[in-house]
Structure formats: C-alpha cells, structure tokens
Design brief:
The protein has 523 residues and is an alpha/beta fold. The protein is 45% helix and 16% strand. The strands form five sheets. Strands 1-2-3-8-6-7 form a six-stranded antiparallel sheet, sandwiched between helices. The protein has a five-stranded parallel sheet with strand order 14-15-13-16-17, sandwiched between helices. Strands 4-5 form a two-stranded antiparallel sheet. Helix 7 runs antiparallel to helix 8, helix 10 runs antiparallel to helix 11 and helix 16 packs antiparallel against helix 17.
Length: 523
C-alpha cells in the first residue's frame, strides 16, 4: 500500500482529527485504502487518499477535488439524506496556528477536499448486523432497493464494450496478484486468471447481447454490505464508485453479484438466495438467461475483495493483520470455487394450498446447485407479475380462470428453461394438481438435460385450512374455500415422491435429494 501513496496528507488528517476543528466534538477515524473518514458529532468528512492505483488515481489535488464532486453526484440518487456537499480544506493567514492555519471551508488556498456527509450510526451498516436481523422483510426491502437503483440508473450499454471492461479487470487482477506473491501463491493466481479468462470468453456473446438490451448501466459498482445502511429501518445504498467508470458501468447482474457474494461468504446463504430470487421476480425474463454469467460475476467480486483487502493490509493494526490475511486467502479460494460447475436440477414441489410448498422451497434453495442456490419460480408470484399488481394485492376471480392459470404455468416453464440453460438449478413451486401440469414441468428438465425430481406434499384438509387462514402478507390468495375446492381435485396417477407436509417435511425432502446422481450438486 505505501508504494501507492504519492503525497503526505498527515497535516490534513491531523487537522480533521482535532476536536477543536469540529467545535469540540469527539472525533473517530475510519481508514480504507482509498479514503480517511472523520466522524464528529452528527457529521462526517471523507478525504480521498493521495494514492495512485491502476484502477483509482487520487494523486493530485485536482483529481481529489473532482472525485469528491463525482462522489456527491453518483450517490445522491440513492442516498440524498446522507450526502451534503463538498468542502475545501483551506490554509488561511488568519487561521489558528494550533491547527496549522487550516480551516474547513471559507476563503483561503485549498490544500485538500472532503465530502461532507450526514453521520449515521456506524453499527447500522448491514455488515454489522446480526444474522437474525436479516428478516424476510429486510431481505425483500434490500432486493427492492437494488432493483429500484438499477431501474433508474442511466443505460450505458455498448455491445462491443460489455466484455472488454471485464477483460481489463481480469488483467488488472492478475497484475495485483503478482505484486503480492506472499498473499497469492503465483501458480494458484495464474490458474485463477486462466479459469476466469475462459469463463469470460464463454459468456462474452451473452454480455454483449445484454448490453445491447440495455442491461449495462451506470451502477453502484461497490455494492457490498458495508455500503448499505439501515436508515429509519430501510436499506439505503451509499458510497458508490465515483473514481472509475470502468468499474461502475457494468451489467446490473454484475453489480448485484457483489451483494450476493458478500452475503454468501458471511454464511447468510438463505439471504443471498432470497435476494437473488426477489430481484429476478421483479425483473425481465432476460435476467434468467443472464444467470449464465453469474459464476464469473461472483468469482470476480471475490477476487476483487481479496486484492482490495490486500491493498489495505498495511493500514490495519498489527494485531488484526493475521485475521485479515486469513480473510484474503478465503476470498481468493472462493474466487476459484465460484467457477466450479454443477449439473442443474429442476425440483418441482406440488401440493394443495397450505401444504408449505413455498416454505420448503425457500429452505432447500440455498443448497441446491451452484451458488447462490436454486432459482425459485412460484406460481403465486408469477400470477401477480402477469397482473401487474403488488405481491400481496388480492386478485379478482378472473385472474384464476383455467386460461389464466395456464398462462402462469407457461411463464414458469419458460423461465425455468432459461435458468436451466444458464446452468442454474430451479425450484418450481405450484399446485401442479393436474397430471398434464406435472408432465409439462418434467419435460422442461428433460429438454434441458437437467435432473428432475418431483415432490408432492400431503396434509389433512383441516391443517391446510388452518394454515391459509393464518397467512398474513403472503403472495397467495388461497382461502379456506379454495382449499375445499382443491380437495375434490382428481390428481390422477401420482409419480412424484409423496411427503407428509409436517414438521419433518424439510428433512424428508433433503433425504430424497441426497439420492440424486452425484454429479448434481445438492443439499
């Protein structure tokens, strides 16, 4: 890290660390490889470090000023309540000698610049939350926040550039790994570079097509948990990349992949899977095809995390460096692991309303197929998307005609085929009461060359009625009357594995999955 520092900013940092600069407020400091942040009272001041990396150049005063202005610009859309302005740190003839004649703002000669921000509770960034805090409500809000940010992000796509920018990242990663042989074993680093290059070559046509479709945008660029904060209970994206458009202009799924990787590597597998699925539910069918690039995206994000933490190693206290080295090694290893392939599986879960199909699907999905688990296609969700209404808005009876239901099942099968072709496992969650519906979903797997497993959940009608009557805030519109009508269905011959929809259902399903062919990654 020290070799990248091009100017001495100690005077500025000492000035900002001095309580008298902030009216006597206590000051705390946060350091990263690219910035120093000073927290005082209800404000924060972020100064760009005078560093020159190939991907981040703050080497001159003018470059640091421009970076501060750009940070304000790119973050105000998602976090208008946090970013307040850019303040020059000036030297004045009348300034306090004790403070080196420096002042925050006002007349004088600028010696540096700071982004002025409204301070928030540092323990409210998502990387600081306990596992229990990642509730279904928070996960839904998080996926929605990312989807909303991407929807309003400027379209920047150019088909010829979609893969080229990632090629530059792969090449720069290789250089950074080679610069740190004590952290990244040279042969392992070369192997990762080869595997990443091969993966990029395989999906390059897809990336160019997605760029032409408008899915390359001016994104956040650094969308991990530390850059998302809970404000008044809502997740807010902040600290977007301002210093390098090659990083920030990217496929929206590549932007999302940083968040998915961060959740996955913290052991929040269910959260990672749920964020992916909720993002997909809100988006177009093309994103299911785009999943073919997800292993590459996850791998690159892990590799970048490894090299960035390596760059910041010198700033850590000595007692924290051993743990940091372990984290760097872990991310580097995961960058290779994300590129491993697995034969996709289509798991269909059927049963009458109230049997717990969606609960079982959510429990199984993180452990099926490659990271971050199986795509869940739920008929209740797809029906609401077709109707263009909110997830919990009750639909009128005409949305449940046989013709409407056929359209829902056809949409599910179409998206399942796209995801399987992209290499991702799929769970199809629907009643599947009719033999032709069960045959049709099985045929999707056969056409895709994927393994197939059908599970049918059984429960007494009294249990089903009690469950649907207790539902709150769910996409299903099923009522007790719906359950009674379903109970009269003629299911026909049932070839799917029947499982009692009780407290042991998940364990039973896992046991059945464990019997699948060994080449299929499974729970």
């Amino acid at each position: 890290m020290d070799s990248h520092v091009v100017a001495d900013q100690n005077e500025v940092f000492a000035f900002l660390a001095e309580p008298s600069t902030h009216g006597g407020a206590r000051v705390s400091r946060i350091d990263t490889h690219g910035a120093a942040v000073f927290l005082a009272g209800d404000l924060a001041y972020k100064v760009k470090r005078a560093v020159a990396f190939p991907y981040m150049d703050f080497s001159t005063l003018e470059k640091r000023r421009a970076a501060c202005e750009r940070e304000l610009e790119v973050n105000r859309a998602n976090a208008p309540g946090i970013y307040l302005g850019v303040v020059p740190i000036v030297r004045t003839a009348s300034g306090s000698l004790a403070l080196g004649g420096l002042a925050l703002g006002g007349a004088g000669v600028p010696v540096d610049y700071a982004v002025k921000m409204r301070r928030f509770d540092e323990t409210s960034t998502l990387d600081r939350l306990e596992r229990e805090a990642f509730t279904p409500a928070l996960i839904a809000a998080l996926a929605e926040a990312v989807h909303t940010a991407h929807a309003r992000a400027p379209v920047m796509g150019n088909g010829a550039d979609a893969a080229a920018s990632l090629t530059r990242i792969v090449e720069q990663n290789a250089v950074d790994f080679a610069d740190n042989p004590e952290l990244f074993a040279p042969e392992a680093a070369r192997a990762l570079t080869r595997a990443t290059s091969d993966a990029l070559e395989a999906v390059a046509p897809l990336l160019r097509a997605r760029a032409a479709q408008g899915y390359v945008r001016r994104c956040h660029g650094d969308l991990h948990l530390r850059n998302i904060v809970l404000l008044e209970g809502a997740p807010v994206l902040f600290d977007a990349i301002e210093f390098n458009d090659d990083i920030a202009i990217c496929d929206v799924l590549y932007d999302l992949a940083f968040l998915l990787m961060d959740l996955w590597e913290r052991g929040l597998l269910g959260a990672a899977n749920a964020v992916l699925n909720r993002y997909l539910w809100a988006g177009p069918a093309e994103h299911y095809s785009g999943l073919a690039a997800l292993p590459l995206f996850l791998s690159l994000r892990a590799a970048i995390r490894a090299k960035v933490q390596a760059a910041g190693l010198a700033h850590l206290p000595e007692e924290r460096q051993a743990a940091a080295r372990g984290e760097i090694a872990h991310y580097f290893a995961q960058a290779r692991a994300f590129l491993a392939s697995a034969k996709p599986l289509l798991l269909a879960i059927g049963g009458l309303s109230g049997t717990g199909k969606s609960t079982l699907a959510a429990a199984l999905a993180p452990g099926i197929g490659r990271a971050p688990g199986a795509v869940i296609l739920r008929s209740d969700i797809e029906r609401k998307r077709i109707a263009g209404v909110g997830e919990t808005e009750t639909l009128p009876p005409h949305a449940y005609t046989p013709e409407a239901t056929q359209a829902v099942y056809a949409r599910m099968r179409s998206r399942a085929a796209l995801a399987l072709a992209a290499g991702q496992a799929v769970i199809a969650d629907a009643v599947h009461a009719r033999p032709q519906e069960r045959d049709a979903i099985a045929a999707v797997a056969e056409t895709a060359g994927a393994d197939f497993l059908g599970l049918w959940l059984d429960a007494p009608i009294g249990t089903l009625i009690a469950r649907v009557e207790q539902r709150r805030g769910d996409a299903s519109d099923a009522t007790a009357e719906v359950v009674r009508r379903q109970a009269d269905y003629d299911l026909g011959a049932m070839s799917w594995r029947r499982i009692a929809a009780d407290a042991e259902a998940e364990g039973k399903a896992r046991a059945v999955l464990a019997q699948l062919p060994s080449e299929t990654q499974k729970v």
